[in-house]
Amino acid sequence: MRTDLTLRALKAVRNLGILAHVDAGKTTVTERILFLTGAVHKRGEVHEGTTVTDFDSQERDRGITIFAAAVSCDWDGHRINLIDTPGHVDFADEVTRSLRVLDGAVAVFDAVAGVEPQSEAVWREADRHGVPRLAFVNKMDRAGADLDSAVASIRERLGATPLVVQLPIGREEGFEGVVDLVRMRAVVWPPDTGAHEERQVPEALRAEALRRRRALDEAVAELHPQALEEYCAGSAVSEATLRAALRELTHAGEAVVVLCGSAYRNRGIEPLLQAVVAYLPSPADVPAVRGTIDGTEQERAADPAAPLAALAFKVHAAPTGRMTYLRIYSGVLRKGDTVLDMGVRRTERVGRILRVQADRHTETDVAVAGDIVAVIGPKSARAGTTLCAPSAPLVLEPPTTADPVVSVAVEARLGQDTDRLASALARLAEEDPSLVVRTDPETGQTLLSGLGELHLEVAVEKLRRDRGLEVSVGRPQVSYRETVVRGVAGLVYRHVKQDGGAGQFAHVVLDVEPLDAPDGEAGFAFASTVVGGRVPREFVRAVEAGCRDALAEGPLGGHPVTGVRVTLTDGATHSKDSSELAFRAAGRFGLREALRSCEMRLLEPVAEVTVTVPEDSVGAVLGDLAARRGRVSASATRGGTAVVTATVPLAELFGYASRLRGRTQGRGTFTTRPAGYAEVPQSLTAAATGQ
């Protein structure tokens, strides 16, 4: 049982992430939070390369966040552990791993653009993890900024229920503050004072503020029983009830509280922090974490008295040693403790515990349930590994890792650096699970695979800067898939092997057919209709395992196979020579033979591309997209700027950034997000498969 003292300590913690599309202002929001809370004494600026969280040299050179950075600060008696996540689609895996260990998040939106492609992607990921969110509409001082339009895009594109708790005071350049609709007070930031002031609601805005407060009361009453009861009794909801209702609706994910401001001009951060404390959950408010041990599910509450359970979500090779970032879900971790690494099932000693402030850190002797810290000592832990008390083992669900879609061949320019390159690549893959290193069996080349062209570019540059290696890089290649268009029925395969001693016998009959799903991302389905015990259950499982083995290489070009359904319809066994090994081999070789008889199609990864260009450049951009086999799905014009959305094969986007700059005199920008797989035209299949 948690004591009152423990419960109060847990309720004073907020573990949250900052999520958004690239350039929406996530890092600036983070910097202003750190400055306002006294964690830093000088405001960092992205354009000056002086931010705390974008500390890597590549982040400062490129002006974007690449790696998720953890920082901590204190506000109003609360400890805030904050993770600034990347906004670029190529680094979405960093966002996924961060969301796995967070209790809440602040989604930042551009007041002009509203919901952008990557905003939608990270929002869906947060939905999948059940992470409660606040929305902060940033850049209210920009020309064309419109809170109502941004809120409408949240409602329409994200399917969320926005509850707007602020009314802007002033528009665009004249934006100077907000009306807090919950307290019905004005909060303004006079120029050059650096501090906010509370005032009465301006007379010119009083009627509008009252109208919006009533709309807020009505919206909350529709969702919250107690608020509905008050509203029906007196046509209004009290401040206390409104606050409680907003908190409960946020925790339940039924609505999202919306605030606004301009982080660059230091306007809106104090109310945002107050909302974080008031509405986002603490570790004590979230459900107990679930894990498994020996197939049995267990729960661990956020209680220091419970056995230790911690999840590693990031690994970083720092000059001070190999740092493993942990979210501690239960128990206490002390310096010098021995923990059980469930990934390799062996014990490790924790040498140091660090409270991290981006690239700086301070040592501590103890970390408790609810904390996010880094440790030095464990040598085998990977992202997704559970560290727990040796006396109470538990495996927590690891974060998912996206499959790589782009590959480049890398080799050391100097022969003596070959071993160093192999070691450096292994370290890269250890730090970033979305990077995969493998050897091409045909060419013998070392291939580095990732989530996009920029992802691989950053990884290769890291080899050069951090490891001092001179490497040669081949042209990027996309990861194709193969799928079944027309299947076969009743394919018979007999696996018979006799080479002395016990033999191997397995007889299977397979039906193979397409598995329908959008974009070919159907995966694999297996079923058995065998009756009469002709194939025992354990052999059926072996056939399924063999079929999964066969999916690794398709008949068109050796690419992985997806979108296939296999049904085991009949079979036979031998009293002595049948075994799981024999039926696994029959499943593998039988499906390979079946796929060669099927009509197959090659699939290629495609991306949704959103291009923003001046109106006078639209024709050139549309022509270029058509030449890249792009299919335009939407086009809109706003204030002399055109926004074109198209689906384009990923292979056609290599080098697109420089081409777009050339066609728009440097004024065009674009963003991408994965959109699954699509069939490769027959005219291009031969070239893609090398046939």
Automatic annotation (TrEMBL):
The keyword Glycoprotein does not apply. CDD domains: EF-G (cd01886), EFG_III (cd16262), EFG_mtEFG1_IV (cd01434), EFG_mtEFG_C (cd03713). GO terms for molecular function: GTP binding; GTPase activity; translation elongation factor activity. PROSITE patterns: G_TR_1 (PS00301), G_TR_2 (PS51722). GTP binds at residues 20-27, 84-88, 138-141. GO terms for biological process: ribosome disassembly. Residues 11-284 form the Tr-type G domain. Keywords: Cytoplasm, Elongation factor, GTP-binding, Nucleotide-binding, Protein biosynthesis. It holds the Pfam family GTP_EFTU. Its main location: cytoplasm. It is found in: Cytoplasm. One of its GO terms (cellular component) is cytoplasm. PANTHER family: RIBOSOME-RELEASING FACTOR 2, MITOCHONDRIAL, TRANSLATION ELONGATION FACTOR G-RELATED. Belongs to the TRAFAC class translation factor GTPase superfamily. Classic translation factor GTPase family. EF-G/EF-2 subfamily. Catalyzes the GTP-dependent ribosomal translocation step during translation elongation. During this step, the ribosome changes from the pre-translocational (PRE) to the post-translocational (POST) state as the newly formed A-site-bound peptidyl-tRNA and P-site-bound deacylated tRNA move to the P and E sites, respectively. Catalyzes the coordinated movement of the two tRNA molecules, the mRNA and conformational changes in the ribosome. NCBIfam families: EF-G (TIGR00484), PRK12740.1-5 (NF009381), small_GTP (TIGR00231). This is Elongation factor G. It comes from Streptomyces davaonensis (strain DSM 101723 / JCM 4913 / KCC S-0913 / 768).
